[in-house]
Every structure is written in structure tokens, then in C-alpha cells.
Write a structure and sequence with these properties.
116 residues; mainly alpha
Length: 116
């Protein structure tokens, strides 16, 4: 399999009912690395399946490409599970931009909490 050829199928497998299929897809996407980032970002932003978004955020953190920072920042406002993985992914990326995204999210969350 060419690294770029089947990324869409691998993304779909992240939502499989079979746990081993999800893990295999995750490992393969991480091994593909940078070429998988655009499909993972797209999945994180648009996929309906929470499991796919959860795994996409996790994979993006392990791949560590800063081009995913904007999508991971937006995912901080997703449900708690996806948000947690997006948070961890930004920490793993660790660039000044990733740290700034986390700080902005913390400030937004604190302001929302104060307004309640």
C-alpha cells in the first residue's frame, strides 16, 4: 500500500466496531506520519463519529505536526473526550503556537465560568 493511497479507509476504520481494527488503523496512520495529517485534520473537524475524532486528535498529537494546531484548538470545544485528546495533542506538539492555543482556551473557559 502506498502511504497516501488508503488514508480515507484508515480514517473510516477509526470508527470501526472492532477495537483491534481501530488500533491497527491508528498505528498505521501514525506510521504514515505527515502525509496522513490532512486526512486526520479533516476527520477531526468534520467526522460525525466521536471515536473517529477522538482517535484523530490522538494521532495528530503523536505525529506532532504544527499544521494541526488550528484544528486541535477548535477541537478543545468538542465533547469532553475529544477535547481531552486535543488538549494532550497540543501539549505533545509543544510549540509556542500550541502553548498559546491552550492558554487562549484556558482564558476562554475561565471567562465562561466567571460569566455563569
Amino acid at each position: 500500500m502506498q502511504p497516501h493511497q488508503d488514508n480515507g479507509n484508515l480514517i473510516a476504520q477509526l470508527g470501526s466496531a472492532r477495537p483491534q481494527a481501530r488500533v491497527n488503523a491508528l498505528v498505521t496512520l501514525i506510521r504514515i506520519g505527515l502525509p496522513a495529517v490532512p486526512k486526520l485534520v479533516e476527520a477531526l473537524q468534520r467526522h460525525n463519529d466521536i471515536n473517529v475524532r477522538w482517535y484523530a486528535a490522538y494521532a495528530l498529537g503523536l505525529i506532532g505536526d504544527k499544521s494541526a494546531i488550528a484544528a486541535l484548538s477548535a477541537a478543545l470545544d468538542d465533547n469532553i473526550y475529544v477535547s481531552h485528546n486535543a488538549h494532550r495533542a497540543l501539549e505533545m506538539i509543544g510549540t509556542p503556537e500550541a502553548r498559546a492555543a491552550l492558554e487562549q482556551w484556558r482564558m476562554r473557559a475561565a471567562n465562561q465560568h466567571a460569566a455563569e
